[in-house]
Design a protein that fits this description.
Elements: H1 6-20, H2 27-51, H3 55-82, H4 90-107, H5 111-140, H6 144-169
Helix pairs in contact: 1-4, 1-5, 2-3, 2-4, 2-5, 3-6, 5-6
Length: about 170
């Protein structure tokens, strides 16, 4: 049970460091953090699509892959329009490492054990990402268009969290 929360905890700790730093994250850092979080969820969805045979898990993973790719594509288009280069930072690096570690952990599982671990992690991950969006990333975003995109993402990802909780309930 504790292992499935590792990725979410790494994200929370990384973002807590950003939130308490003397300087708030810059828009290029925020963009990199948000993009990295989306990329981690895309990779998890792709893994679920390869490993799972459960129709509910597959449908959820397909939605995660499509929605997070769409948001990341919108983010890249906005950054290109604004002529902003995302800036790698310790929070992005912590998210990427935790994501890779979680993929390796999940790769060792099969069947119902994989499905449960994947969906439990999705619940925890979306709660953490949504909290970070609401309390750190959106409040610190300076560009109005970036802030609006993050707010749209939060609305969508809140629905993802609810959907993940619904799917996870079947594994209790």
């Amino acid at each position: 049970m504790i292992k499935h929360v590792i990725l979410a905890a790494a994200l929370a700790l990384g973002l807590a460091g950003v939130a308490t730093a003397a300087d708030a994250p810059t828009d290029p850092q925020i963009a990199h953090i948000a993009y990295t979080a989306g990329a981690v969820d895309i990779a998890a969805a792709e893994q679920a699509l390869k490993k799972s045979k459960n129709a509910d898990i597959i449908a959820f993973a397909q939605q995660m892959e499509a929605d997070h790719k769409a948001v990341n594509d919108q983010a890249l288009a906005l950054l290109k329009k604004l002529n902003v280069t995302p800036e790698d930072n310790p929070t992005s690096q912590a998210i990427a490492k935790a994501g890779a570690d979680k993929l390796a952990e999940l790769d060792k599982l099969d069947g119902a054990a994989f499905d449960k671990a994947y969906i439990d992690n999705e619940v925890a991950y979306h709660k953490t990402v949504n909290g970070a969006l609401a309390t750190v990333l959106i409040p610190n975003a300076q560009n109005a268009e970036l802030k609006a995109l993050l707010q749209t993402g939060l609305t969508l990802f809140t629905e993802h969290e609810k959907h993940a909780e619904m799917v996870a309930a079947a594994f209790k």
